[in-house]
Write a structure and sequence with these properties.
CATH topology of the largest domain: Fumarase C, Chain A, domain 2
Order of helices and strands: HHHHHHEEHEHHEHEHHHHEHHHHHH
CATH class of the largest domain: Mainly Alpha
Structural class: mainly alpha
CATH superfamily of the largest domain: Fumarase/aspartase (Central domain)
């Protein structure tokens, strides 16, 4: 049972759905990453000979295995009133050469690297796999339904038919492009002192090539080196990442609203076992599309937070202010709402069955959509020399606009045109269900 006394629903009602992010984007996870960076910096300074000392393989392994006790760390921070300083004091009790801990760096050197590591892990180990599974499921649905004819609706009105699979493939394609951008994210880091000048470094050890060592250390953590910063790493890469995830969110929001609409049209039936047994508290016949509605809300919240993160983090007064400190503590919340939405859409999609009969009924009741190909065929025939093809658009408008057009009416109109015999035969074979162009073939652009 979820804890209901928490302020955030992500920590209460929805905790089980977003719990994988806790290992990467919680305060405890951030402190573990800070410990990792401090330990690696200590090892680097000694192993490269920048500072005197020596570690055995066992000592390195022991330091890299240091666990963080949140209670003890919290007690230290209560005294220091500084989170990174608390990590420093915590480590001093546990490592060889305690005087080297947190030397030749500033707290933001540790923080920016810790955040980069935790965000990278959250994206690559939690968010991306979940998003990729969903997109793969949408792609699978697209391939499965590539030949299923469906009436289109542009501006909410009946329009040129398509296939259900082709429409699903549009979303799979759009979402896949964003996943590629997110996969290609460059996670930047720096370690260059209080204002990015290596001032203290050069004063203490002037013979050392500090930019070279800074780059080497940052890249040893699996990050890209930022050579030019103030006291803080500029966070531009974070803003770029959050923009891409927000865009993924908004495309997924579009998908959720479209699927919701297809459910309301009867094109999809919701599987009761997958969606839950209760739809309405008072109307027992209902099965509400709650997965997609829940996803919409969470995607909106996530995108709003990501927009705020992206716009706030790229700005810092002069060489440093602390707005980024509070802002970055909401990264996990933004990711959490996105992950929750992805989970809802994934489960909602798994509980849908296509109603081919409903799709067929809508198509069969919409013969007016053949006004487009007939008009175009008339225009081409006229260009090729056929007579009697004048004013095709106006003639089809008079026939179809605001009127119920049956199969019989449409076929009689085609026969009355005097259009070349081969064109007439082709038009007479056409039905709303077969007028889907290359829709089925276009799904192949998703790949296999």
């Amino acid at each position: 049972m979820a804890v209901m006394s928490t302020l955030s629903p992500l920590d209460g009602r929805y905790a089980s759905y977003v719990s994988p992010l806790v290992d990467h984007l919680s305060e405890d996870a951030l402190n573990r990453a800070r410990v990792t960076v401090e330990v690696e910096w200590l090892i680097y300074l000694v192993d490269t000979g920048i500072l005197p000392g020596e570690f055995t393989p066992e000592e390195r392994d022991e330091m890299r295995s240091i666990e963080v006790d949140p209670k003890e760390l919290g007690e230290i921070e209560a005294e220091t009133r500084h989170d990174v300083k608390a990590v420093e004091y915590y480590l001093r009790k546990r490592v060889k050469y305690p005087d080297i801990v947190h030397i030749l760096c500033t707290s933001e050197d540790i923080n920016n690297l810790a955040y980069a590591l935790t965000i990278k892990d959250a994206v690559e180990k939690v968010w991306l796999p979940a998003a990729r599974r969903l997109v793969n499921n949408i792609s699978a649905l697209a391939r499965e339904q590539r030949d299923q004819p469906m009436l289109s609706r542009t501006h909410g009105q009946t329009a040129t038919p398509t296939t259900l699979g082709k429409e699903m493939s549009v979303f799979a394609w759009r979402l896949s492009r964003q996943l590629q951008r997110i996969r290609d994210t460059e996670y930047l880091g720096k370690i260059n002192g209080a204002t990015g000048t290596y001032g203290a470094h050069v004063t203490a050890l002037p013979e050392t090539d500090w930019p070279s060592h800074s780059r080497s250390f940052v890249e040893s953590l699996g990050l890209s080196w930022n050579p030019l910063t103030t006291q803080i790493e500029s966070h531009d890469w974070q803003a770029e990442l959050y923009s891409d995830i927000a865009r993924f969110n908004r495309i997924l929001h579009n998908f959720a609203t479209d699927v919701w609409t297809y459910i309301s049209l009867g094109y999809f039936h919701q599987n009761l076992a997958a969606q839950g047994s209760t739809g309405s508290s008072t109307m027992p016949h209902k099965v509400n599309p709650i997965r997609f509605e829940n996803a919409e809300a969470n995607l909106e919240i996530s995108s709003a937070l990501l927009d705020t993160l992206g716009s706030t983090l790229v700005t810092s007064r002069l060489q440093r202010d602390l707005t980024d400190s509070s802002t970055q503590r909401n990264i996990g919340v933004a990711f959490g709402h996105s992950l929750l939405a992805i989970d809802n859409v994934t489960r909602g999609l798994a509980g849908l069955d296509v109603d081919a009969n409903a799709l067929a009924r809508d198509l069969d009741a919409s013969w007016e959509v053949l006004g487009e190909p007939i008009q175009q065929a008339m225009r081409v025939a006229s260009i090729k020399g056929a007579t009697g093809m004048d004013n095709p658009y106006e003639r089809l408008k008079d026939l179809t606009r605001g009127q119920q057009v049956t199969e019989e009416i449409m076929r009689d109109f085609i026969k009355s045109l005097g259009i070349p015999a081969d064109v007439e035969a082709r038009l007479l074979e056409l039905t709303p269900a077969t007028y889907t162009g290359l829709a089925s073939q276009l799904v192949t652009y998703l790949g296999e």
